[in-house]
Amino acid sequence: MRQDRIGFLFLTPALIAVVIFYLLPVVMTAVFAFTNMSTATGIRGGGYLVTEQTLRDLSGHGLTGATLSQLADAGYEVDTEGLAALAATFGDRLAGHIEAELGGESFATSRELERALRDLRAPELRITRDRKQAASLFQRSVLNIRHDTADALRDELTGAGIPGGDHDMIIEAAYTGWSWTMRNFELLLSLPSTARYALNTLIYVALTLVLFNVGLGLLLAIATFYLPKPSAAVFRAIWFMPRILPPVLYVLMWKWLMWDNGFLASALAPFGVERINWMLHSEYHAWVAIILINGVVGASFGMIIFASAIKAIPQTLLMAAEVDGATRWQQVRYVILPQMRWPILFVTAYQTLSLLASFEYILLSTGGGPGSATEVWAMAAFRTALNNYGGNLQYGMGATFALVLVIIGTVLSLLYLRFFNFQALLAKPRIER
Prior knowledge:
By secondary structure, the chain is mainly α. The chain is about 65% helix and about 0% strand. The longest helix is centred in the middle third of the chain and has 34 residues, at about 190-225.
């Protein structure tokens, strides 16, 4: 029992790290996915703001025409309350002058009232800023005025003469903070771009995984296994270099190779080949570039894992195969490949999850273009939540994209474990049964 406690004590830092860096982000993603959080709402909640769009929304939800007219038409009124505030700010002399000239008058907009104040030629209102400040004291409309609390907005509605029975509906529509909602998932299913992102991700993950991360990685590992050890070590080190390079520098090298003023275009130009951007000339070129850029990096990882696994194969098996007259191909087929089941499971599962969540090389090379032809699901989540073109970052919608990736990754992991019969790996050796 004491040893168990000591073991648990040593595992505690790792458990804390798992909770903080894995479970907590997943839980937070799931929570945010059911909200409408955005730049407009903020993450702490929001205030109350009645805008023209609010009035249009309320019109479709049954608010009476009379109330809508009151909200829309209320503007600026030179009344006793405003004059008192003006006297406190600019002095009694100006307040008396405005009361004599404009008392009791109403104005639809701030501009109209400011023009009237300018025509008075009062020395206190010579500056535009002062006229705007004075005009704001007579504002009686609730439109485009932010209120921190529902009670503050309710007081404004009461002062504007809005019927009390309409207050709750207006306050609910005017709330700018985030709220719990299922709309993100409904929107995700209805957007035409969703299918495109899903198809792009399938193409990206499938081709990169099969052709390079597993296929080429396994081929390189087998090929270097039969090379002299010094030559094999140098070859693996060179191939592994792109993985340790900064992504920006690595992609920049590919741009030098593939752009219209790069090496490839310059080398083909003497043969009459038109100078084009081989990375962005068409969707086909963009996909080839993306798969090559990611594939070279992914193949290096698979090569190292598979090479280590091949070295772990008992040499007696290979020697016995040679004694029996097996060719290199027969050794690979009947000795090496059957021993690679678990390494292939690991690389396939790990690289699938990595590709699902990665987009940095796509962002740096094609930017998801041309158009959105190469924009994958993870990049769509990034742009929606953190870097979109419109400026209003949709945190909740971006979290919905990310949550779908988490679910897909979990399902694929379970399928891989089932397909590769992971239970057999964990089973006790027969001699211990």
